[in-house]
Design brief:
This protein is of the alpha/beta class and 421 residues long. Helix content is 25%, strand content 29%. It has two domains: 92-330, ANL, N-terminal domain (Rossmann fold, 3-Layer(aba) Sandwich), CATH 3.40.50; 335-401, ANL, C-terminal domain (GMP Synthetase, Chain A, domain 3, 2-Layer Sandwich). The protein is globular, with a radius of gyration of 22 Å.
């Protein structure tokens, strides 16, 4: 019986982390990718639960982990340490990568991705984005996040270049690096594009740019239109995409030339994938070779094989037009009952955000809703819409004014359970 090693890699967009990730894949090790700036007690909990054979990450981070293993080697600012683990069963032969699920930074549940998942999704993305070896992608997202990892994998798949970056897109350092290294593309989540809008991105001089992509949640149609127009004016391609970590990364996309005519859509299935709707619930169902093996909640799950057989129930409610382009309406489980009234929280958030012109997050708390908002002058408009549009009495919700919405490392709203990747 061959016992395949498992590993934890705590990293960011640095050469050392990427080299360790690729070495793990090349040598057949199953590797869990995680944020080197993450909560230390939670990282320790995961290590105790999954018992990795080796751990790698920034030396200053590994030095703080309780019960650290014997040091093996230093890689500049990174270290790698290991131990011998006695297991009764082997780690599944095709298990390649473990990632946290969207929005569950406090949960030990991981997504189990196979080598075939990584390869097929990278190939599909390379195909519909028309990537070639002359591309120079700059990392705008952490590679331990499925969207960021898909940028890395799809470009390496065509032997293209990566410009490793950890600067925020709102900094001068980022744009100086972008221009200096002649980056050809840009990837962002909705929050990224909101910031770019404020920065008057359309007026920037970026002669090396070829295309932009957006995923990680719903982007307001007005911003889609703005960036589609800006891209068209500069001869760039702009792709709106939809995906989930459970499908490695990408599930669907809108071809750049159809953005304006398919506004609000998540697009059509990626190459080698298939989308359909559950006839009873209208849940979006995806089939493809990039669907995960299943979830892991403990070390024992690393021994499991393929439990889903290429079929993923996304948890999103959707509709389809005559051209087989799909439109997500909300989450299957994001419904609340307030005074007997069934409320779609995604629809409520989207409507109120459009009304007040800023982001808002809504959660259910007991038998009431809590609406977190960031602009004090919006309170009256929110109350008016809650009454006139959603017919919810003021006793059925409360408003919480906060400075800004909490965000995950990938830029998603931290208070919202919306899980699109």
């Amino acid at each position: 019986m061959t016992l395949r090693p498992s590993a934890f890699l705590f990293g960011s967009n640095q050469v050392e982390a990427l080299a360790i990730y690729l070495a793990a894949l090349r040598t057949g090790h199953a590797v869990f990718l995680y944020d080197a700036a993450a909560n230390l007690p939670f990282a320790e909990q995961l290590i105790e639960l999954y018992r990795p054979d080796w751990i790698a990450g920034p030396t200053v981070y590994l030095d703080q982990i309780k019960g650290a293993m014997d040091e093996v080697c230093h890689l500049t600012e990174y270290s790698l340490s290991g131990r011998t683990i006695v297991r009764e069963h082997p780690v599944y032969h095709d298990l390649a990568v473990l990632l946290t699920t969207s929005g569950t930074t406090g949960s030990p549940k991981l997504v189990r991705l196979s080598y075939d998942n990584l390869q097929t999704n990278a190939s599909s993305i390379s195909q519909y984005l028309n990537l070639n070896d002359s591309e120079r992608a700059i990392t705008t997202l952490p590679f331990f996040y499925s969207y960021g990892l898909s940028v890395v994998n799809s470009h390496l798949n065509v032997r293209a270049s990566l410009i490793l970056n950890n600067h925020s897109v709102v900094t001068r350092d980022f744009w100086e690096l972008f221009k200096q290294q002649e980056a050809t593309s840009f990837a962002g989540v909705p929050y990224t594009y909101q910031m770019l809008k404020r920065m008057k991105f359309a007026q920037m001089d970026l002669p090396s740019m070829r295309y932009m992509t957006q995923a990680g949640g719903r982007l307001d149609p007005s911003l889609v239109a703005d960036f589609a127009n800006a891209a068209a004016g500069k001869g760039w391609r702009f792709y709106v995409m939809y995906g989930q970590t459970e499908a490695t990364a990408r599930i669907s996309y809108i071809p750049s030339e159809l953005i304006q005519s398919k506004m609000g859509s998540i697009g059509k299935a990626i190459p080698d994938g298939e989308l359909d709707l559950d006839p009873e619930t209208q849940e979006l169902i995806y089939k493809g070779p990039n669907v995960m093996l299943g979830y892991a909640k403990s070390e024992e799950d690393l021994f499991q094989g393929d439990l889903l057989n290429g079929v993923l129930r996304t948890g999103d409610i959707a509709s389809k037009d005559v051209d087989a382009f799909f439109y997500v309406k909300g989450r299957l489980k994001r419904f609340a009952k307030i005074f007997g009234l069934r409320v779609n929280l995604d629809e409520l958030e989207q409507h109120l955000e459009q009304e007040i012109g800023s982001e808002l997050s809504c959660i259910e708390e007991g038998e009431r809703l809590v609406l977190y908002y960031t602009t004090a002058e919006s309170a009256e408009a929110i109350r008016e819409r809650m009454s006139s549009v959603f017919h919810i009495h003021h006793s059925g919700y409360r408003l919480e004014l906060i400075d800004e919405l909490p965000r995950t490392a990938s830029g998603k709203k931290g208070l919202s359970p919306f899980a699109g990747a």
